[in-house]
Amino acid sequence: MIPESFNYQRASSVREAISLLQQGGEETKILAGGHSLIPTMKLRLATPETLIDIGGIPELKYINDKGDYLAIGAGTTHWAIESSDLVSQKAPALSQAAGQIGDVQVRNRGTIGGVLAHSDPQADYPGVVLALDATIVVQGTGGERTIPVSDYFTGLWETALGENEIMTEIRIPTDSANANSCYLKFPQPASRYPYVGVR
Ligand SMILES: Cc1cc2nc3c(=O)[nH]c(=O)nc-3n(C[C@H](O)[C@H](O)[C@H](O)COP(=O)(O)OP(=O)(O)OC[C@H]3O[C@@H](n4cnc5c(N)ncnc54)[C@H](O)[C@@H]3O)c2cc1C
Questions:
Q1: Is the dihedral of CA 132, 88, 188, 78 positive or negative?
Q2: Model pTM?
Q3: For labelling, which of 56, 131, 167, 169 has a CA lying 20 to 30 Å from the CA of 70?
Q4: Residue of the CA atom closest to atom 11 of ligand 1
Q5: Domain extents for the chain?
Q6: Residue range 60-198 in CATH 3.40.605.10
Q7: Interval 113-165: pLDDT, tens
Q8: What is the helix, strand, coil percentage profile of the chain, to 5?
Q9: Ligand 1 pocket, mutate which of 36, 137, 144 (most atoms under 8 A from CB)
Q10: Nearest in space to 193 (alpha carbons), one of 91, 110, 90, 85
């Protein structure tokens, strides 16, 4: 399966990515780990003219303790979340969900921002971030805004992300409920996507 031809641009900062997104218009898409977008393009369900690769932007990859919340860069991989001591102490449900995503190749490339922007309700993180009462941080030409996760998912593959906005951070409250959370799933045997995920 071969996707339609497309232009490829590599951004080295969030600011540059936003600017490229704005210049590119409607048929331009962000590429992070590529583990949802590329298969969709191969099936020709998506045919973007231009991809802006944000996978090499260091400022999107971090896990920091901010006291009241954990700040996780949108470009942080599932593997980095799964193997973080901070996440396993403060939000074990998130760490356990990350560790059960697909296989090791998917976890090494796929990002939390990619999953939440793709907004496939079948994925592991959406249910978890809703249960943990996360906040989504986005940046666009108008600056930064924060979206409570309860307002973020607006439908199947639909979110409150604006056209020229990039998700930059996911904030997970570090309260005692989240510190005592746990994630279990009943996986589909071939894809490992959950049939049911319970916090
Ligand atoms: C074989 C296989 C098995 C899998 N199994 C599971 C599973 O068990 N559970 C599960 O939850 N997932 C699973 N996945 C999906 C995987 O987790 C993907 O990594 C994830 O869905 C997308 O993340 P990505 O970084 O690859 O995003 P991409 O594919 O690069 O992008 C996905 C979408 O998000 C947009 N996007 C990405 N980052 C941003 C950003 N920062 N701001 C704005 N828009 C952005 C892109 O434009 C695109 O529309 C599987 C995938 C594969 C290929």
A1: positive
A2: 0.95
A3: 56
A4: 123
A5: 60-198
A6: no
A7: 999 999 998 899 999 999 999 999 999 999 999 999 999 999 888 999 998 99
A8: 35, 30, 40
A9: 36
A10: 110
